[in-house]
Amino acid sequence: MINSHSSTVSQVSFVDRLRLSTSALHKQLESLSLSQLIVSPEITVQKYAEYLQIMEPVVRDIELKVYPVISNLISDINRRKKLSLIREDLKVLGFSITNISTEFDADFEIPFALGIMYVLEGSSLGGRVILKNIENQLGFTAECGAQYFAGYKENTGSLWKSFVSEMVRYEQEQGCGDVIIEGANFAFRLIFEYLETGNK
Predict the structure, then answer these.
(1) Coil, helix or strand at residue 56
(2) Which of 12, 19, 55, 142 sits at a 20 to 30 Å CA gap from 178?
(3) Residues 126-144 as b or e (16 or more Cβ within 10 Å = b)
């Protein structure tokens, strides 16, 4: 039987390993000009819309093709869908949805899918910083034009913690940490490629 202390230690240990193992690709993603611009005072409506246009198919395909794989594991997964928010923001901005195809269409196994979701859910935390910049520089708000980055609003922190808890519980039960890490790095790598090429 795993006592509460050892369970907490295991959770911290795996989350730390996951964060460390994905840090290089995470930093590479953050180093992109568009990633830096989205949190900069120099952001424009055009560049903001470009960012959303690139992320829309990523969010679309993760929700359509990855979420079903873990729908029985993440109890509140339907609450985490934000595709409609990003599309509504683009509508407010006056920009269309692109027809970009992504590689989030394979038959992923559960731990790999969890790694992908870890990246998308983690972006909800960073979205709070982006939201503040969009509000200050462009005047869009969590209610109009910046719904996607508002994410779960006041529930962002608690929903992140509950996801991490369910992910770690599965990792402890299945011993599949390496595959979760592979999925997370896969997601970071693909999002980097879409943002890098889509902004050229």
Answers:
(1) helix
(2) 55
(3) bbbebbebbbebeebebee
